[in-house]
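Write out the 3D structure for:
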Amino acid sequence: MAGQVQFSVAGPLARVTLSHPGKFNAMSRSMWRELKRVFDAIQPRDDLRCVMVCGEGGHFCAGGDIAEYPAFRFAEADLRDFHENDVWGGLDAMLRCDVPIVAQIDGNCMGAGVEIASCCDIRVAGDSARFGAPIARLGFPMAPREAQLVGRALGLMTAREMLLEAAVFDAPTMLARGYLSRVVADADVAGEARGRAERIAALAPQAARLNKQTFRSLSTDGATDSMLDRAYAYADSAEHREGIAAFLGKRKPVF
């Protein structure tokens, strides 16, 4: 099973659930495409006032589905297509969504999970949630648009620690660094996220959408074309292949 992105509506509230059983909701290519379709469908709906994003089974999202990676990561054109179309397609649909988004973060929030959470307006986490992007262990960097996104949301120091040291942070640390809106007991995170969503939904919806448009207009400087032209040249490198092979072989990589 390649996982799925589930979508449900209850009155003015929508819920988007990342579901990939047995993989802590790691994002497959098909899930990225579904994420785009879901948020493209949410954007024009005047009846929706807030969206909650969560993961299934006690985890938000543990990153990308690495089992898929050997099929496309080692050819530059395929790698670029994955990041610029599949991954960025899903993230950009979230960023373009004028409906406020609340993240309900449980358990693992790694890599792709941090990227998805960074597209949300309000982030609520359980006290045992963990955050990181340890892709240095896999032998590849974060794609430019994705790095820009998380750098803005996390702060550049935290982003550098995650990417350069493979650092993993707990929820209280991420709250102190300004990434999270609130940290509550694990048992209370769903109720806290829903309470936030209900408060948003009770307020003026047009004002919320206009505020989101304003925030978006304040951050328009994107990754340059020249940067993107060389961003995926590492696709066939020995380091990249070793990182993926070591993970799949359940051994320590040799770089």
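The chain has one domain: 4-187.
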